[in-house]
Amino acid sequence: MGKFAAVLPRELRYARNHMWCRLLQDGRARFGFTSYAIRLMQDVYFLDWQVSPGDRVEQLQQIGHIETSKAVSDLFAPLAGAIVAFNPELLNDPCGINVDGYGEGWLFDMDCDSAPLWTVEEYYQFLADNWEKTQRLIKGKINIED
Q: Quick check: is 127 in a domain?
């Protein structure tokens, strides 16, 4: 999208809120921010969770906050399920998101049904279909029609 291609691993699944999902060997799902989201956010400075391990959450329930060089934003659950664990390293220093978003920069693990998530092709299509709206949002002109 734009000047830079969004490089997305094919083996992962993707959520509408720009999170990736990796199925773990124990049947749980691990989530993190896609490279597309990381590029939009730029540097992550602060991460705070409003839920605890063991809590059940609904899809799109607010679960935390993130502060980046671009904005302070709420974070929402990509699916309904139970939060199992948060990445403890990110609580101390969230810059791991910037450095290794698909590895050490993972956010949390959940017990959930990941079937509703998109394939990489479906996520690329979502990005393409929403690129103009994203550009208006980034430029602060979301309510202006083209």
A: yes
- Give the count of beta carbons closer than 10 Å to the beta carbon of residue 124: 16
Question: What is the domain range of residue 34?
Answer: 13-138
Number of structural domains found in the chain: 1
pLDDT confidence tier of residue 4, bands split at 50, 70 and 90: low
Q: Is residue 7 part of a domain?
A: no
Note if the pTM is more than 0.85: yes
CATH number of the domain to which 123 belongs: 2.40.50.100
Q: Is the dihedral of CA 21, 23, 27, 28 positive or negative?
A: negative
Considering the domain boundaries, does residue 67 fall inside one? Answer: yes
Residue 63 to residue 25: CA distance in whole angstroms: 25
Give domain status of residue 89, yes or no: yes
- The pLDDT value given to residue 143: 42
- Nearest CA among 98, 92, 80, 94 for reference residue 40: 98
* 81 strand-pairing partners: 57, 112
Residues forming beta bridges with residue 75, ordered by sequence position: 64
Residue 50 token pair? 């409003």
